[in-house]
Write a structure and sequence with these properties.
alpha/beta, TIM Barrel, 10 strands, about 45% helix
Length: about 350
């Protein structure tokens, strides 16, 4: 219901001209850069998103867009494309970024930028944030005891409780070793076989061969997203923070054969970063770093705290268009929409 209501509101914004007005306002407000943050490429209508974005924005690789953003503007060429610059970023490096997003990038001639986690590329394992679903889906036991509590997996409520426990433990891990030890224990406890079901394939990490093919096409650029995707602000050891950031860049440069200049913080809200993590990224030699904090970027934006607009392929393109234009952020700050806002919150 909430999704339907959001789509209706976004449709009203689009057909009333509000979305077009917001795009015009952004163009008139001076140099700005919109960075969209996707993850998966399947499970929605990425094609319709891209067709809309290609028509209304000047889509660029992140490196070119940031060079332009932070370079003083010369006298405007009247013939220049005046559309707002926009970057498409995909975090984590899911395999469907190759099978679906890359295919569309070539067909539509749209540049994209992917942020990779080399540790997962090399292991081919499921990403840790998907493990709760994977472990419970493939568990070979019906009853299990974890941390002193017995969970009956035939009960929907108890399965949900165990999934929450798994997510909480891996999300808040203070080291990669702690996280992986817990997941190993859970795999053994739940007797999960080492298998890859066909339906799991799109959610697995990219392979180096796929990455090389995307690089050679010229339509896909790559940035760093740590070696193993820990939440950097939660790590206890500053040396582990440094290694996650620096080793990732080193491995990617070796594989890609060119410098890697941009970094994406895992999860990426302010509370997941902190000043020491930001400084470690800067010392590692990256020129820019992107967060998941909402907003557009200007030449005054801290290059190590770049803002992005989170979108998803399962959103209707009306919703994506409104978010990309900045309307969701605008309306969320207005006090004269409490009824709609409260309704949406209740229907989550």
């Amino acid at each position: 219901m909430r999704k339907r209501i959001l789509t209706i509101i976004a449709g009203v914004m689009y057909y009333s001209g509000l979305v077009a007005l917001a795009r015009w306002w952004t163009r008139c407000a001076g140099k700005q850069l919109v960075i969209l943050n996707y993850h998966r490429a399947t499970g929605g209508d990425l094609l319709r998103h891209l067709v809309y974005l290609r028509k209304h924005y000047r889509i660029m690789h992140i490196e070119a867009a940031l060079e332009e953003l932070y370079t003083p503007r010369k006298k405007r060429d009247r013939r220049a494309d005046k559309r707002t610059p926009l970057v498409l970023t995909f975090d984590d490096g899911y395999r469907d970024n190759y099978t679906h997003a890359f295919k569309l990038a070539r067909e539509l001639q749209i540049p994209m930028s992917l942020y990779l986690v080399p540790g997962y590329i090399e292991s081919g394992a499921h990403f840790w944030w998907n493990e709760d679903r994977h472990l419970l889906q493939h568990a070979q036991v019906r009853e299990v005891q974890v941390e002193g509590r017995v969970y009956h997996l035939d009960s929907t409520q108890e399965r949900a409780a165990l999934a929450l426990l798994i997510t909480t433990r891996v999300y808040g891990a203070s080291s990669v070793a702690e996280r992986e030890a817990f997941l190993t224990t859970m795999r053994e406890t739940l007797a999960v076989p080492f298998l890859v079901a066909p339906e799991d394939e799109p959610a697995l990490p990219l392979t180096w061969q796929q990455i090389q093919e995307m690089t050679q096409s010229g339509w896909i650029s790559f940035g760093a997203h740590t070696m193993h995707h820990p939440i950097l602000g939660y790590l206890k050891d500053s040396e582990e923070v440094r290694c996650e950031i620096e080793t990732c860049r080193s491995v990617l440069e070796q594989q890609l054969g060119h410098p890697v200049r941009s970094f994406a913080y895992p999860v990426g809200k302010r509370q997941h970063i902190g000043q020491s993590v930001r400084q470690a990224v800067k010392l590692a030699g990256y020129a820019w770093a992107v967060t998941t904090n909402y907003g557009f970027n200007t030449p005054r934006t801290d290059p190590y705290m770049l803002r992005r607009v989170e979108v998803d392929v399962d959103q209707h393109w009306y919703v994506m268009a409104a978010e990309t234009a900045g309307l969701w952020g605008f309306f969320s700050r207005l006090r004269w929409l409490p009824v709609v806002r409260n309704y949406l919150l209740r229907s989550r």
